[in-house]
Hints:
Elements: H1 10-26, H2 29-38, H3 44-52, H4 71-83, H5 89-104, H6 107-119, E1 124-127, E2 143-147, E3 150-158, E4 168-174, E5 185-191, E6 197-203, E7 209-221, E8 225-226, H7 232-243, H8 259-262, H9 265-276, H10 290-308, H11 311-333, H12 351-361, H13 369-380
Parallel strand pairs: 1-4
Antiparallel strand pairs: 2-3, 3-7, 4-5, 5-8, 6-7
Helix pairs in contact: 1-4, 5-7, 9-10, 9-11, 9-12, 10-11, 11-12, 11-13
Amino acid sequence: MDFGLVELTPEQDAFAAEVCAYLTEIVTEKVHEEELATGDGINLGVHLALGARGWLMPHWPVEEGGAGLDEICTRILRLEKLEHRVPLVAEATTNMVWNAVEQFADRDLRAELKPGVAAGTVRFCLGYSEPDGGSDIAGAKLRAVRDGADWIINGSKMFTTGAQNCQYSFAIARSDPDRPKHKGLTMFLVPLHLPGVETQAIRTFGGERTNMVYYDDVRVPDRFRIGDVNDGWTVLQGPLNEEHSMAARSGLQDLSMGHEFLRTLEPALAAAAAWAATPGPDGTRPADDPTVLMRFGRIATDLEAGICTPGPQGRVKGSEVLIAAAADLIDLVGPIGLLQRGAPGVLGGGAIDYAHRFAQGTATYAGTVEVFRNIIAQHVLGLPRPSLPGATVFMANGRRAPGHAPAGAGG
Length: 411
């Protein structure tokens, strides 16, 4: 693997300067304050401004609403968005869903939605998790029943982040309860404005907003079905692989998907370091204590390890490092580390408190760390799939193995 620096051309340098200047102009302190207050993961004004420049789908050709950027300029744009703290949740989920829509959706539906996706007026959220399903997406109970040219959908989804600001939910539904659970699923792009759809906010400890979405006799035209009937698991694999860091990745992307979490640790560590370098009333600094330096060194080393751990392993490492390091920083600086943004005497704008609160959800985001440990075991280490009580095991002739539960009874 080449860890050498990428030397930018004059044109790429100029593009980086252009992006930095534009984002500095539109991503104001008011934008940051709004995100802290709402946790929405999107600022509509910024989102539409990016769409107007083709910067939501920057790799798309200009004639399709993109910016026609090469791989390096696309990466420059991404890094500048992160540096300027652009709220990116809606952009990320829309990108993941679009790949499946482009591959499996009806051609007319693709043509109808694509301009809006590029412009930012059409956004998608992920309708996977359910209240009693945990991380078992294939155990979906959201029911879809065919009724002529439509489907009637009933049930609920939870942790549907961004539903309040999106036009469609990429929802997986049970279309045939008599088939094995992975074989009786169908994917839909459910318009969230339809009668019978209700969205209720869920507030996280980290301040983000996610949602419960209820579907009560929602009539969805068949044109919004994505892929074949009862083949939803196939449709879902692309977005899931991308979310789980199992899809092919460019050498310009972050090595670790855990880096997304660890970006919140960097300003927290900087705030704590500034505290440690400040003399107290007696003239001494916390940094004069070798034990304090040792703890800072351990956190910095763990941070680097999390950033450099690849694939799904990085997802687990990133969460574990952030949870442990944020708690250690609060233990180091004391109660002042719990002060939130705007409080008198707060360190680094409340970066330590925010990192600590945000860290707690990272064991769940994008799939729990337990899910990722199973991915690592099976797909990285090649270990056999665990046989759990109640799991269904099918023999070569399609019959269930003796002593195993019937289909639908468990895992």
